[in-house]
Amino acid sequence: MEYIGIIEGILYVVGDEGISFEQLQDILEIEDSKLNEVLDILKKTYENEVRGFRLEFLGNKYKLTTKKEHAKYFEKLIENDKKDNLTQSALETLAIIAYKSPITRAQIDEIRGVDSVYQIKRLMYRNLIKEAGKSNLPGRPILYTVTEEFLDYLGLQNIEQLPVINETVSKEDKETDLYESKYKEN
User: Fold this and answer.
1) Is 130 exposed, middle or buried (CB count within 10 Å of its CB: 0-12, 13-18, 19+)?
2) How crowded is residue 93: how many other Cβ atoms within 10 Å of its Cβ?
3) For residues 52 and 64, what is the distance between their CA atoms, to the nearest angstrom?
4) pLDDT confidence of 175, banded at 50, 70, 90?
5) Whole-number Cα distances in Å, 41 to 4, 69, 136
6) What string of DSSP letters covers the chain?
7) How far apart are CA 151 and CA 63, in angstroms?
8) What is the Cα–Cα distance from 155 to 149, expressed in whole angstroms?
């Protein structure tokens, strides 16, 4: 069934936000019964013990979630990450939080163009960022900011010591294709 792979890809792209039945139906342009059939097949596929995901219906949205019985391995992953250097994705997320804090996860995702949940969890585990209250935006999302450990990590006395960045966007930057890098190898 061609829809299985498409739905799986959509679920991956929407990440933790999930997607409603109506949104899936609108995107795929299929009838209720057909969409229900495909979702049932996908759910049964993920119930197999060799699969690492579940298809869940939470908060009126379909979401891919990890299996609870694998939690101890995910904890080890985060513990191991704490021993390693920060990845490019983690550094990018950390820089956004440092320069734009307090900031919500959705705002971070918008700037990065990808889901940042994993990076935020890793940075919180390493105690480089922390929750800084709730936003007044609808749904009252969590705000994030950097910690004292972050300042220590960079050898700074305060956040004002961060280098100034130029945020102006040139016409060339605006016209750069989404999948084309503007950076060239030397």
Assistant:
1) middle
2) 27
3) 10
4) low
5) 8, 22, 40
6) -HHHHHHHHHHHHHGGG-B-HHHHHHHHT--HHHHHHHHHHHHHHHHSTT--EEEEEETTEEEEEE-GGGHHHHHHHHHHHHHSPPPHHHHHHHHHHHHH-SEEHHHHHHHHTS--HHHHHHHHHTTSEEEEEE-SSTT-PEEEEE-HHHHHHHT-SSGGGSPP------HHHHHS-TTS-S----
7) 36
8) 9
Token pair of 40 as six digits: 């049932």
Side chain identity at residue 123, one-letter code = L
Strand partners for 145: 130
Give residue 168's Cα distance to chain centre: 25
> Which of 78-87, 131-140, 147-156, 157-166 has the lowest average pLDDT?
78-87
| Gyration radius (Cα) of the chain, Å | 20
182 has a pLDDT exceeding 80: no
pLDDT single digits (tens) 40-99: 999 999 988 888 888 988 888 899 888 888 888 877 776 665 556 788 899 899 999 999
Q: What is the pLDDT of residues 100-144, one digit of tens each?
A: 999 999 999 999 999 999 899 989 988 899 999 999 988 889 999
List the structure tokens of 78.
Answer: 């985060």
Written as six digits, the tokens of 151 are: 């300042």
